[in-house]
C-alpha cells in the first residue's frame, strides 16, 4: 500500500477510510496527530479511491459516510456461535504469543509468592553458562505494581505487533530484545534483576521508529506515550524513583527495538 493523501483531521480520515472499506476499497487511515492523518491504499484501486476522496472533500457531512461507518461497526451475521466482544478464543487466534507470555508471567509471579528462593534460583541470570538464563529474567517480577505495569504495556504493544507482523516476527524480535537487554543489565550491573520491561522498551522503540519509516505496518505510538516512556527511562537513570529499575536493560531493549525497526522497515503488514 502507498500513501495517496494527507488530511488535517484524524476523525475525517478515519471516517473516509471506514466508508471506503464498506465500499470494498482497501484504505487505511494512519493517525499521526489529532490534526494530521495519512491515507493509504492500493495502486490497483487508486483511481476509484481518488474519486471517492474528491466527493468526500466536497460533502464530508453527507449522511452516507456516517451510515457506512455505522454499518461497518456492527457485527455481521455468521454461522455458528457468536463470540462475545472479549473472548479468550478470539484473542488466542489473533495474538497467541502475546497471551502465552502474559499467562506465563502471571504463573511465575504466583510461584514467586509461594517459593521465592526456588523461582529466583532457577530463573535469574546467575550462571551465564546455562543458556536459558539469558532469557528467563523477563518472567520475574518483584511487586504487583511491577507486574501490572509491564504486562499492561506488553499487552498493548505485543498484540498489535503480532496481529500486524505475525507470531514468528514477534518471537524473533522479543527473544533477541530479551537477550540484549538482559545482557546489558548483567554485564553493567549484575544478576540481581528481572522483569519484562526490557522487551517492552524494545517494542516501544520499534513502534516509535516504524511509525515514521513504514506507516503501512500500522504500528504507531503517540508523542505523549513516547514522552512518558522516555521520561520514565531518564528518571530511572537519575535514581529519583521509589523503585529500583533495571535501567541498562531498558536502554538496551530500546536500542534493540529501534534496530529491529530499521532492519524491518520494508516489511509489509499481514493485513
Explained architecture:
About 4% of the residues have low confidence. Helix 4 crosses helix 5, helix 7 packs parallel to helix 9 and helix 8 crosses helix 9. It contains eleven helices and three strands. It folds into two domains: 72 residues, Alpha-Beta Plaits (2-Layer Sandwich); 176 residues, Rhomboid-like (Rhomboid-like fold, Up-down Bundle), CATH 1.20.1540.10. It is elongated. Helix content is 61%, strand content 7%. Strand 2 and strand 3 form a beta hairpin. The chain is mostly helical. The longest helix has 22 residues. Strands 1-3-2 form a three-stranded antiparallel beta sheet, covered by helices on one side.
Summarize the structure.
This protein is mainly α and 271 residues long. It has a 3-stranded antiparallel sheet, with helices on one face. The chain contains 11 helices and 3 strands; from the N terminus they run βαββαααααααααα.
Amino acid at each position: 500500500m502507498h500513501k495517496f493523501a494527507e488530511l488535517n483531521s484524524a476523525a475525517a480520515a478515519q471516517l473516509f477510510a471506514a466508508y471506503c472499506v464498506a465500499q470494498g476499497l482497501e484504505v487505511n487511515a494512519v493517525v499521526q496527530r489529532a490534526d494530521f492523518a495519512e491515507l493509504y491504499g492500493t495502486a490497483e484501486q487508486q483511481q476509484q479511491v481518488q474519486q471517492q476522496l474528491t466527493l468526500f472533500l466536497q460533502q464530508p457531512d453527507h449522511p452516507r459516510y456516517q451510515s457506512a461507518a455505522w454499518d461497518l461497526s456492527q457485527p455481521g451475521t455468521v454461522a455458528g456461535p457468536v463470540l462475545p466482544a472479549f473472548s479468550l478464543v478470539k484473542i488466542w487466534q489473533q495474538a497467541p504469543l502475546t497471551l502465552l507470555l502474559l499467562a506465563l508471567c502471571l504463573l511465575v509471579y504466583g510461584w514467586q509468592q509461594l517459593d521465592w528462593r526456588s523461582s529466583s534460583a532457577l530463573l535469574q541470570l546467575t550462571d551465564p553458562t546455562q543458556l536459558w538464563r539469558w532469557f528467563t529474567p523477563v518472567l520475574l517480577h518483584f511487586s504487583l505494581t511491577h507486574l501490572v505495569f509491564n504486562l499492561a504495556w506488553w499487552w498493548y504493544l505485543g498484540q498489535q505487533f503480532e496481529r500486524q507482523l505475525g507470531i514468528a516476527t514477534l518471537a524473533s524480535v522479543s527473544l533477541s530484545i530479551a537477550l540484549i537487554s538482559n545482557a546489558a543489565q548483567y554485564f553493567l550491573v549484575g544478576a540481581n534483576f528481572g522483569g519484562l520491561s526490557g522487551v517492552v522498551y524494545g517494542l516501544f522503540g520499534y513502534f516509535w521508529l516504524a511509525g515514521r519509516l513504514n506507516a503501512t505496518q500500522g504500528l504507531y505510538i503517540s508523542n505523549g506515550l513516547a514522552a512518558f516512556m522516555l521520561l520514565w527511562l531518564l528518571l530511572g537513570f537519575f535514581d529519583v524513583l521509589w523503585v529500583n529499575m533495571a535501567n541498562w536493560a531498558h536502554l538496551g531493549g530500546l536500542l534493540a527495538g529501534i534496530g529491529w525497526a530499521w532492519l524491518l522497515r520494508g516489511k509489509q503488514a499481514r493485513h
